[in-house]
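Bumping with the actual sequence this time:
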Amino acid sequence: RCLSDWSSDVCSSDLDFNVKTGAPEKLRCACVVVGVSSPRRLSPAAERLDKASRGQLRELLKHGDIDTGCGKTTLIHNPKGRIEAARILVVGCGKDKKLSPQAFTEIASAAARAVHASAATDALSYLTELVVADRDLAWKAQRSVEASREAVYRFDELKSDANPPRHPLRKLAIAVADRDAVKSARQGVTRGIAVANGIDLARLLGNRPGNLCTPGDLADQARALKKAHPALKVQILEEKDMTKLGMGALLSVSRGSRQPAKLIIMQYKGSATDENPVVLVGKGVTFDSGGISIKPGAAMDEMKFDMCGAASVFGTVSTVAELSLPVNLVGIVPATENLPDGDASKPGDIVTSMSGQTIEILNTDAEGRLILCDALTYADKFEPDVVVDIATLTGACVVALGHHATGLLSNDQALAEELLAAGQISGDRAWQLPLWDEYDEQLSSNFADMANIGGRSAGTITAACFLARFCKTYRWAHLDIAGVAWKSGKHKGASGRPVALLVQFLMERARDAG
C-alpha cells in the first residue's frame, strides 16, 4: 500500500472519554484509579474505597504491598467489601501534598500505562482530585486524556499481523467531585482529545518510512486536512513556482533527489478580525542522508524523523481547526529529500536564497537551514504578527539539552517568554539559548554573504543565527527539536512534540485577544 491509501484518514482513537460524578465504591467499572501518597496518606477517593473494603488499602500499605513512590502502580484484583469495581489501581504520588505539574503528568501516564496493560477495557479515574500547584481541574482533565492517549498509541499500519491487545482500554471516565465541576472537566477533556489527535497525527507522519512519506505524500496530507477541515485553505507550490520565486537555497537541497520538492501552505482564519497571523514553519526533510556530506550508516534509518518539524505543524494546524480557535494561523512546510546524486549540491557551492543573500554550502548535511531560510523569507508575504519555525536542526542541541527540552532562540524576548510559558503549562518544555552577535560572526565566508555552518562551537546557536538573517522584518522564534522529536532504542518512534507547546501557545494568544 502507498501512503495515499491512508492520507484521507482523520487521525482518531478507539479510546472514548467522558466525565462522571459519584462515589468511587458505587460506580461499576473494570478498574477504578486512585492516588496514595507517602507514607500512608490516602486521597479522598482512596479513603472511601478503603472504608468500603474494610481497611484493605491501609492493610496493604502497612505491609508494604503498595508502593507510594511517584508514578508507582499497584493493581488490586477483586477488592474486598462492597466495591462495584472489579479492580483498584493505586498510583503512588510521592511525599508532597501539593504536586508539581511534572509529577502529576508522571502519575497520569503511569496510571494510563498500567490500566492499558491490564485486562480492563474501561476505567474510572479519580486522579483529578489530587492537588497540583497552580493548575486547575480543566488542566488535570486535559493532561489525563493526553497521557491516556499516549499510552494506547500504536503504529502498526504497516504490519501484516498487527497483533493488537486482546483487551484494550476503550473507555476512560474522568471522575469529579460534583456537578458544578463537570463543565470544567469536559472543557479539559475536549482540549485533551484535540491535542492528542494533533500529537497522534504528528507521530503518524513521523513514523512513516521515507519511501511512503515523501514530499508529495506530505502535500497529499495537507489536502486531506483541508477535506477534514473545510476552514483550511491549502496551496502547494511546485519546483517551477519556487524557481520563479528565486528559492535557490531550498532547491539546492532537492537537486539530489528524484522526488520533487514541495512548498506546502495551510491557512486557517479563525479570528473575526483581520489580525496578522501566527506563521509556523516546519522543516520537512522526509529523509536526510546528509547529501554529499553523507552521514554514518549507523542509525541513518532514524533520519526519516527529519521531517518531525513539518509533522508538528500538521498536528498543530489540525488541532487548531478541530478546536475552532479564534486565531489566524498559517502553516508553511518546505518539503524535500536530501540525497547524494550526480546533480546534488557539493561542499563549496554557492547558492542565492529568495532574500537575495548568497550562501556558501560548506556542509550539505546542514540542509535544514537552507530550506527554512527560503520558507522564512516567503513567510513575510503574510505580514505575520510572529513567526515560529520548528526543526530537527542540530545534533548540538541534543548535546546541550539532552532529550528533555526543546531549544529556543528568538529575536524578541516577549515572544520567547510566551513560548516558554506555554511549554511550562503544557508540560512540553523549552529552554532558551542566547542569540548574540558574537556567535553570528562564526558564519563569515570569504566567498559569499555567509556560510551555512559556523564550526563545531555553539552549533545550535550559530544555526539559529543563520536563520535570524532571514527574519529581520518580523518577530521570530526558532524551536530546535532535535533532542525531543523522537525516541531511539526499544521504544523507537516519533514523540509528537512540540504540538502540545504550540497549541498551548496559540490558545493563550486566543484567550488574550478575546
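The C-alpha cells above came from a reply further down the thread. DSSP finds 15 helices and 21 strands in the chain.
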